[in-house]
Design brief:
about 350 residues, Nucleotidyltransferase, domain 5, Actin, Chain A, domain 4, six-stranded mixed sheet, disordered C terminus, alpha/beta, five-stranded mixed sheet
Length: about 350
Amino acid sequence: MTMLGSLRSTLSPDIGLDLGTANTVVYERGAGILVSEPSVVAYDTRTDEIIAIGHAAKEMEGRAPRTIRVVRPITLGTISDFRAAQTLIARLVDRALATRPRLAPRLVASIPGCATDIECKAVEQAVRAAGARYTTYVPQAVAAAVGAGLDVTSTRAQMIVDIGGGTTEIGVLGTAGVIRLASLQLGGDSFDHAIVQRLRARRFSIGLLTAERLKIELGYVGRQPGSPGAIVNGMDLDAAAPRGITVDETLIGEVMAEGVARILRGVCAVLESVPPDVASDLIESGITLTGGGALIRGLAAEMGARTQVPTVVANDPLTCVARGAGEILGSPTLLDQVGPHADRFTRWYQSLRIGMRESYSP
C-alpha cells in the first residue's frame, strides 16, 4: 500500500455494517469489530427526541413510561423507521471511530435477499445520511460467507446459512456469485415471540427480553441437552399478580421446533434445486452456519443429518456479516464482482423475484 493509500485508510476508514433486526455490528478492516449493539432506539414522545440507542434503549423495552417509546427501526432485515435507523448508524459509527481524527468513512452495508429495490435504497440513504462519504450494499449471504472465511471467488460451490434476528439467508455461492438463494422472513426474533405466545397461552406473561434469555439458555434442536430448566419472573394472568415459575427445556424445544423445521425445509429446497456438479461440490465443502441462530444447540448436527451434507458453525458467527462486508469493501476486485452494479449481482437479484420466500407466524 502506498503512503497516500495508508493515510487515506487511516483518516477515512473502510467500515462494514451489519444493520440487523436484532443487532447492529460495526467492523473496520484491519481493526476488527468496533461496536456491537442491539438495534433499538428510544424516543421521548413529548419532544420527539431520540434519548437512547443500543443496550441503553433495549433495557427500557417493556419497562419504559408512557413518555418514552422504544422502537426497533429494522424489521425483517429492512428499515421500518428511517430516522431512527439513521441515528442508530450515525451514533454507532461515531462511537466506534471517536478515538481518532478522521474523514468521513467509506461504508458498505449488507441487505437480505427479501429486500426490494426501494428497501435497498432506503438502507443506502440511511447510511449516507449518517455521514459516510461513500456507501454501497452487498448481499447478506455473500457478506456472511466472506466473514466466515469462505473463498467466494472459488469455482467450487459453497453453501452458507445465515440465521439472523429477522431473516434467514440460505445461499449457494460460486465464482463470486450467488448460484441459488432463499430468503426466509424468519429468525431469532420469531422464536422470542413464539415463546412469549406459548407461555401466554398457559396464562403466564413475560417480556421479550425474558423470552430471549429462555431461548439462549434452553433452546435446542434434536436431542435434549438435559438442562434443569430456568426460573423466570412474569405476570400470572389468572391471579393478576407477579410471580416466578420454572420453565422446562422441553417446552422451549417444542416452541422452537416449527421455526427450525421451516429453516431446514428451506435448506433442503435449495439443495434440491442445485445442478448435479454443484451438489457434488457441496458434499465436500459442506454447509457453514452463521448468525445468532447458528448457536442453537444441536442445529448443526440436525441440519447435517437432515441434508446428508457436513455442517459446521463458523468462528464467531454473530459478527460474520459485518466482517465480511468490511473485507469486501477493502477488496476493490471483490466489490466489483458482488456489488449492486455487478452483472452477476443484477442477475441474482432479478432471479430472486421468483425465488422462495417464507414467513413464520407462530
